[in-house]
Specification:
Length: 120
């Protein structure tokens, strides 16, 4: 599988997950739990990936990337609090879901309109 095909597959899977979460929220009384689960899962994936690259982040002091990881940690915490019934955390989770959906749409555009020769 080429780098482009792999990237396209991953971003399409993320887009399908976002659309499924929106449909679940719209049609199911328990749909918000799916949205919170997706938020938490995306934040956890980002944090695990950042943890595997921690020495590069702290070596070069990449403050923008570090800030992104702090935001992902806040999103993970908000999803956990929203599961427990905190209304403010639920609103923050909806906003975070919108930001994740926008990032996913941007990744879909990049994947299908730009040729990538290799993934780093």
């Amino acid at each position: 599988m080429s780098s482009n095909a792999f990237f396209q597959t991953v971003v399409l899977a993320a887009l399908v997950a976002h659309v499924a979460a929106i449909v679940a929220v719209w049609y199911s009384p328990w749909g918000a739990n799916g949205l919170l689960l997706l938020n938490g899962l995306l934040a956890l994936i980002a944090l695990v990936y950042a943890g595997s690259r921690a020495r590069y982040i702290f070596l070069a002091r990449d403050w923008a990337y570090l800030g992104l990881m702090v935001c992902e940690l806040a999103i993970l915490m908000a999803a956990g609090l929203a599961f427990r019934g905190n209304r403010a955390a639920l609103i923050c989770s909806y906003v975070a879901f919108g930001l994740h959906a926008c990032a996913t749409l941007a990744a879909v555009c990049v994947a299908f309109f730009f040729k990538i020769t290799r993934l780093i």
